[in-house]
Amino acid sequence: MREEPPELAGPTPSRARIYDYFLGGTENYAIDREFAEEADRVFPAMRQLCRDHRRFSRAVVRHLADSGFDQFLELGSGLPTVDHVHAVAARSVADPRVVYVDRVPETVEHAARLVADEPGVAVECADATDVAAVLASPGVTALIDLDRPVAVLAVALLHSSTDDVARATVQGYRRALAPGSVIALSHPTGLAHPGLRAWCDIRHSGYSYAPLLRDPDDMASWFEGMELIGPGWVSAPEWTPDGPAPGAEVTGSGLWGVVARVP
């Protein structure tokens, strides 16, 4: 684990570094670990939720790279550690091009240091819900050919957006992407996971997670005009491209996952 001078840690924990800690990474500081351990005592499932989001992302990227995708755009990316997109993609396709997007400048600076020596990888500071700004960012214009299929990952992202903003975001990327492009999303649900519903109202050291919980009926309109890949809406950590998978109401994972193609 990293030990850091106080001026680098900041006065509050970082979501990206907490996520890294829960994934078993090393790009986190004492203040993040303290918060994470406090949260873990109140809601032990948080660690598993983070790992299940990453399990979904890993399965999707592996499948798409195996299918020939070599362009990836990860929204709300946090820190590219522990089965990060460019490492997973590189196992299946030569020279993948990956752009990570996050809106927190501190996180972007940290992430940029981590990938500074990685060819074909960029990190951009932008609000993922501002589709035009993301697609016009230097990293995207330099690395991503929008005339070819792109895989867009919105993993653990839109639970902090209103319904209107979330729908406009997904539909905005759908309209901007070339046919054959893919949008993958994971999202928390309280279905069969009452602990997650209770967690929304708990504050820790003045810091609140408070996700919006949604189910497929709440999100179906976001994917209008797209074709669902594989099993459709399923429990995110169980997503597979090859056949049926149980829903979140069966597994109690607390997460939905879906992958959709631009026709």
UniProtKB/TrEMBL annotation:
EC number: 2.1.1.-
Signal peptide: none
Gene3D superfamilies: Vaccinia Virus protein VP39 (3.40.50.150)
Keywords: Methyltransferase, Transferase
InterPro entries cross-referenced by the UniProt entry: SAM-dependent_MTases_sf, SAM_dep_MeTrfase_SAV2177_type
Superkingdom: Bacteria
GO MF, one annotated term: methyltransferase activity
Biological-process GO terms, alphabetical: methylation
Name of protein: SAM-dependent methyltransferase
